[in-house]
Amino acid sequence: MLKIKVQDGENIERALKRMKNKFRNTKVLQKLRENQHFTKKSVKRRKEIQKASYIQGLRDKEDN
Q1: CA dihedral 34, 37, 38, 40 (to 10 degrees)
Q2: Confidence label for 46 from pLDDT (cuts 50, 70 and 90)
Q3: What are the sequence ranges of the domains in the chain?
Q4: Does residue 63 sit in helix, strand or coil?
């Protein structure tokens, strides 16, 4: 459960922004979306490898 203490004189929009950032950092929504359907471990691992190779390619391109 997230607890956001609103300090005296703090704008409510600022407190909402802090709450949204905390919620995003806990990755609750991401976990819920992942659990909507089952993904085999082999498929999950393949996606991780593809993502890593893509990112590595971008970094190699950036270095050149």
Answers
A1: -70
A2: very high
A3: 12-63
A4: helix
For 2-62, the DSSP string reads ---PPPTT--HHHHHHHHHHHHHHHTHHHHHHHTTS---HHHHHHHHHHHHHHHHHHHHHH
**pTM of the predicted model, to two decimals?**
0.53
- For 3, phi then psi, to 5°, come to -125, 125
Give, as one character, the DSSP assignment of residue 1: -
As a whole number of angstroms, the distance between CA 46 and CA 17 comes to 35
**Using an 8 Å Cβ cutoff, are 17 and 34 in contact?**
no
Average pLDDT over residues 22-45: 92
